[in-house]
Design a protein that fits this description.
The complex is a heterodimer of chains A (about 290) and B (about 290). Chain A has a single domain (about 60-290), classed as MetI-like fold, CATH 1.10.3720. In chain A, a hairpin with a 7-residue loop joins strand 1 (about 60) and strand 2. With about 290 residues, chain A is mainly alpha-helical. Chain A is built from twelve helices and two strands; from the N terminus they run H-H-E-E-H-H-H-H-H-H-H-H-H-H. The longest helix of chain A has about 45 residues, at about 1-45. Chain A has a two-stranded antiparallel sheet. The model of chain A has no long low-confidence stretch (mean pLDDT about 90). Chain B is mostly helical and about 290 residues long. Chain B has helices at about 10-45, 50-55, 65-95, 100-115, 120-135, 140-165, 170-175, 180-190, 195-210, 215, 230-235, 240-250, 255-285. In chain B, helix 7 packs antiparallel against helix 8. Chain B is globular, with a radius of gyration of 24 Å. Classes of the chains: A mainly alpha (about 290), B mainly alpha (about 290). The interface between A and B is large, with 81 and 89 residues.
Chain lengths: ~290, ~290
C-alpha cells in the first residue's frame, strides 16, 4: 500500500513537470508580448501616437530637433512586402502546380530538394549575393548612382519567400482528393485544365495560407534587406529610392542608441509585432478553413 | 490522340499555362543553381588554412575566423541542450498527459505564434529579457537562450508528429502489463519518437547556423577565442554575424564569401542529412 502511494506521488510529480514544460511555450509568448508592450509604450506616449505613426521624418540622431516619424518605415515594409508578393507568388504558384502535378518523379525529387535548400540558405548569404550581384546590376541597368534600393530589396525578398510559398502550396495541392481530378478528366478536360481549374480551387485555402506565410516572412526579414536596401529613412516614392524597413530601422540603430531614441526603436518593434500578430491570425484562419474543407 | 477535338482557344490556354509552369519551375531551379554555384565559386578559393585556424589580428592585419567557427559550435550545442528537454517535454505533455482540450489549444496556438515571430524581434526581446533583466550581458549564453525559444516550436512540432505515429496499442499493451504512466512514457513512447527528435534537431541546427538578426544584440560581434564555458559567458560573433560584419561594415568581401561558402556547404550537408534521416525512418516504418 505504502509503495503504491509512493508510486502515485511520483506519477503526480512527473505529470506536474511535463505540465510545466508544456506551459513554457505559453510563458515565452506572454513574456515577449509583455516586454515589447512595456518597452514600446513610453516612447509612443512621449512622441504621441499620431506623430509617431504618421510622421514623415525620421531624424533620431539630430541634436537640435530630433524627429521620430515612422511612416517611411511602415510604407517601405508594406510596399516591399507587396512587391515581393507580386513578384514571388506567381513564380511560386506555377512552380508548385508543376511540382505537385506535372513533374516526373525524379525531377520532382531534385527540384523539391533544391527548394528546401533555398529555404535553408542563411539570409546574410542572400544579402551578400544581393550586394555584389543585384545592386551593381540595378545601378548599371537603370543608370542610377546607387543600386541599393527598394527594388533590390523586393527582388531579394521575392526569392526568399519562394520556398515557403512553393512548399505549402505543394502540400495543399497534393491533398486534393484524386476523385475530383478523375471526374474532371473523365468529362474531357485536359490534365492542365484539370489541375488549374479543379485542383487549384480545391486547394485554395492552402494556397492562400502559403501567400500569407510569405507575407509574414517578407515583413519580418531583416539582415538580407539591410544589406541591399541602402538604409536611408526616405519615404518610398520610387523603386530606386534608398529605403529603410521596420525591421532594419530597429537593427541599424540599436547598437548605438540610448534614451528616447532607443525607446522609439522598441516602439517600432512593437508596431512590427502587431503586424505579425495580424498576419498570424489571418494565417490561422486560412489553415483552419483548409482543414474543415 | 485524345484531345484532337480541342478548340483552338483551349489549346492556346493549355499551351500557355504549360509554358508558364515550365518557365517558373525552370527559373526556380536555375536560381538555386546560380546561388549555390556563385557562392561556391567566389568563396571556395578564399578558404585557406590560415583563415580557418587563426584569430583576427589588427597588428598583422590578418583575418581569421577560428573564433567565429568555435562560437557557432558553442551556440549550436548550447541551444540544442536547452531546447531539447523543453520541446520534447512539451510534446509529451500535449500528446500523452494533457486532457484539457482548451489548454492544448492554447499551447499549440502559442507555439504557432512563436514560429511566426521574426528573428529581429527575438533579438530585441532576448536583449531585454536575458541580457538586461537577467543580467547576462551580451553573451553567447544569452544568444543561445534566445535561439532556444525560437526553435522551441520546431522541436515541439516534429516530436509531436512522431509521437502521433506511435501505435496506441503499444501504450495499451504496456498499461495492460501493469506499467505506470511514467514507465510507459519512458520505455515505450520516448523510444518511439526518436526519429522526430532527430529531425527536429537537424532542422534546428540549420536554423541556428543561418540565424543572424536574433544574435546581433544578444551575442554581439566579438572575435575573441575562448573555451566553451568562458565562451558562453562572453560575447562572440557566429559565422553569419561575422559574414555580415565583414561584408557590410568592413568591406572584406573575400572573407565574407569564404564564410558564405562554408555556410553554403553546411546548409547542403544539413539538407542531405535531413533527407537521409527522413528516408531512413520511413523505410523503418514501412517494415
Amino acid at each position: 500500500m505504502k509503495q503504491y502511494l509512493k508510486k502515485q506521488a511520483l506519477e503526480r510529480v512527473i505529470h506536474g513537470v511535463f505540465l510545466l514544460l508544456g506551459l513554457v511555450t505559453v510563458g515565452c509568448v506572454l513574456l515577449i508580448t509583455i516586454y515589447l508592450i512595456v518597452s514600446g509604450i513610453p516612447a509612443i506616449r512621449k512622441i504621441g501616437l499620431v506623430p509617431f505613426l504618421f510622421g514623415k521624418v525620421w531624424a533620431s540622431t539630430s541634436k537640435t530637433n530630433p524627429q521620430y516619424g515612422i511612416l517611411p518605415f511602415i510604407l517601405t515594409s508594406v510596399y516591399g512586402t507587396a512587391g515581393a508578393i507580386v513578384l514571388g507568388v506567381p513564380i511560386g504558384f506555377f512552380t508548385a502546380v508543376y511540382l505537385a502535378k506535372l513533374a516526373p518523379p525524379q525531377l520532382k525529387s531534385i527540384l523539391s530538394s533544391a527548394v528546401s535548400l533555398l529555404s535553408g540558405i542563411p539570409s546574410v548569404v542572400y544579402g551578400l549575393v544581393g550586394m555584389l550581384v543585384l545592386v551593381p546590376g540595378i545601378r548599371k541597368l537603370f543608370h542610377i548612382p546607387d543600386g541599393a534600393s527598394l527594388l533590390a530589396a523586393i527582388i531579394v525578398l521575392a526569392i526568399m519567400i519562394l520556398p515557403s510559398i512553393i512548399k505549402v502550396s505543394v502540400t495543399a495541392l497534393e491533398a486534393v482528393p484524386k476523385e475530383y481530378e478523375d471526374a474532371s478528366l473523365a468529362l474531357g478536360a485536359t490534365p492542365v485544365e484539370t489541375y488549374l481549374r479543379v485542383s487549384v480551387p480545391a486547394a485554395r485555402s492552402g494556397i492562400a495560407a502559403a501567400v500569407v506565410l510569405g507575407v509574414g516572412r517578407a515583413i519580418g526579414e531583416a539582415m538580407a534587406v539591410m544589406m541591399v536596401s541602402g538604409n536611408a529613412p526616405n519615404l518610398p516614392t520610387s523603386l530606386f529610392e534608398s529605403v529603410r524597413f521596420l525591421t532594419t530601422a530597429v537593427a541599424s540603430e540599436m547598437s548605438y542608441s540610448s534614451g528616447l531614441q532607443q525607446q522609439a526603436l522598441f516602439s517600432i518593434a512593437l508596431v512590427l509585432f502587431l503586424f505579425i500578430l495580424l498576419i498570424n491570425a489571418t494565417l490561422n484562419f486560412f489553415l483552419k478553413r483548409g482543414k474543415e474543407a | 490522340m485524345k484531345h484532337k477535338t480541342l478548340s483552338s482557344s483551349r489549346k492556346a490556354y493549355v499551351g500557355c499555362m504549360k509554358a508558364l509552369m515550365y518557365l517558373c519551375a525552370g527559373l526556380t531551379g536555375a536560381l538555386v543553381l546560380f546561388l549555390v554555384g556563385y557562392v561556391l565559386v567566389k568563396g571556395l578559393p578564399n578558404i585557406t588554412w590560415e583563415l580557418l585556424s587563426t584569430s583576427p589580428s589588427y597588428l598583422t592585419e590578418r583575418i581569421g575566423i577560428l573564433p567565429d567557427l568555435m562560437n557557432t559550435i558553442y551556440i549550436v550545442l548550447a541551444t540544442i541542450v536547452i531546447v531539447l528537454p523543453l520541446g520534447v517535454g512539451a510534446a509529451i505533455y500535449l500528446t500523452e498527459y494533457a486532457k484539457n482540450k482548451k489548454l492544448v489549444a492554447v499551447i499549440e496556438y502559442a507555439a504557432e505564434t512563436l514560429s511566426g515571430i521574426p528573428s529581429i524581434i527575438y533579438g530585441l526581446a532576448g536583449m531585454l529579457i536575458f541580457c538586461e533583466v537577467l543580467g547576462m550581458g551580451t553573451s553567447l549564453l544569452a544568444g543561445a537562450l534566445t535561439l532556444a525559444v525560437m526553435n522551441l516550436p520546431t522541436i515541439l512540432r516534429t516530436t509531436q508528429e512522431s509521437l502521433k505515429t506511435v501505435p496506441q496499442s503499444y501504450r495499451e499493451g504496456a498499461f495492460g502489463l501493469g506499467a505506470g504512466k511514467w514507465r510507459v512514457v519512458r520505455t515505450v513512447v520516448l523510444p518511439g519518437c526518436i526519429d522526430g527528435v532527430i529531425t527536429g534537431c537537424i532542422l534546428s541546427v540549420g536554423r541556428i547556423l543561418g540565424e543572424s538578426a536574433a544574435l546581433l544584440f544578444t551575442a554581439g560581434f566579438a572575435h575573441a577565442l575562448h573555451g566553451i564555458f568562458d565562451g558562453l559567458s562572453s560575447p562572440g560573433a557566429t559565422l553569419t554575424v561575422a559574414l555580415y560584419v565583414y561584408a557590410k561594415e568592413e568591406g572584406e568581401f573575400e572573407v565574407a564569401f569564404a564564410i558564405a561558402a562554408i555556410l553554403m556547404l553546411l546548409t547542403l550537408a544539413i539538407n542531405l542529412a535531413a533527407e537521409f534521416v527522413a528516408r531512413h525512418f520511413q523505410k523503418k516504418k514501412a517494415l
